[in-house]
């Protein structure tokens, strides 16, 4: 099997980033990467184009880094509050997950910057009330710390509603179900 060198025109998983020169099998390059515009064969002309691709990549990465740093500054100042459904003894039903935090962050940031739930790092789902610090990896060089306050949902109001429901159940008698025959 012979290999050939190619220049990637965009990031490809398990292969490399844009403007990287990599060696791949000749058939993979000729039949898949080059026809789809994902790579260029290495020639003197494409080596000149490589410098342009590297400049574009550096510019884009610098822009992403600046945006990530700005969002990190905003997130570090934030303190979001989420409610967690709890029972009579304060035991939590369910948990606060990375998806819940991402959804709330989107609202807090005004939709200008959407945080993917996979970038939010939780050691485990939050199942207790109180204040928790959550790290968010915005860029490979930028990590933000977010303060999340978890409050019990309902509290005394939930207990009052449960009492009313129990009273209603005592006065309610269910009708027997009718049997259907064919």
Describe this structure in words.
The protein is of the alpha+beta class and 182 residues long. It folds into two domains: 62 residues, Ribosomal protein L9, N-terminal domain (Ribosomal Protein L9, domain 1, 3-Layer(aba) Sandwich); 88 residues, Ribosomal Protein L9, domain 2. Helix content is 38%, strand content 25%. It contains four helices and seven strands. It comes from Chthoniobacter flavus Ellin428. GO terms for molecular function: rRNA binding; structural constituent of ribosome. Belongs to the bacterial ribosomal protein bL9 family. Pfam families: Ribosomal_L9_C, Ribosomal_L9_N.
Write the layout of secondary structure elements.
Layout: E1 3-8, E2 21-25, H1 26-33, E3 39-41, H2 44-77, E4 79-85, H3 98-108, E5 120-121, E6 130-139, E7 142-153, H4 156-171
CATH-defined topology of the largest domain: Ribosomal Protein L9, domain 2
Pattern of helices and strands: EEHEHEHEEEH
- In round numbers, the mean pLDDT is 82
User: What share of the residues lie within helices?
Assistant: 25-40%
Low-confidence stretches: none
């Amino acid at each position: 099997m012979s290999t050939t060198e190619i220049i990637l025109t965009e990031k490809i998983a398990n292969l490399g980033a844009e403007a990287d020169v990599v060696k791949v099998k000749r058939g993979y390059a000729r039949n898949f990467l080059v026809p789809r515009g994902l790579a260029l064969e290495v020639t003197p002309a494409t080596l000149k184009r490589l410098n342009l691709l590297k400049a574009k990549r550096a510019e884009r990465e610098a822009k992403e880094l600046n945006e990530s740093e700005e969002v990190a500054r905003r997130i570090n100042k934030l303190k979001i509050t989420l409610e967690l459904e709890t029972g009579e003894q304060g035991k939590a039903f369910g948990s606060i997950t990375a998806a819940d935090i991402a959804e709330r962050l989107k609202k807090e940031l005004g939709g200008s910057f959407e945080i993917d739930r996979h970038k939010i790092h939780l050691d485990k789902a939050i199942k207790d009330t109180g204040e928790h610090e959550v790290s968010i990896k915005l860029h490979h060089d930028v990590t933000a710390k977010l303060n999340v306050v978890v409050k019990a949902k309902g509290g005394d109001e939930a207990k009052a509603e449960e009492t009313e429901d129990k009273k209603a159940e005592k006065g309610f008698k269910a009708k027997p179900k009718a049997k259907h025959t064919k």
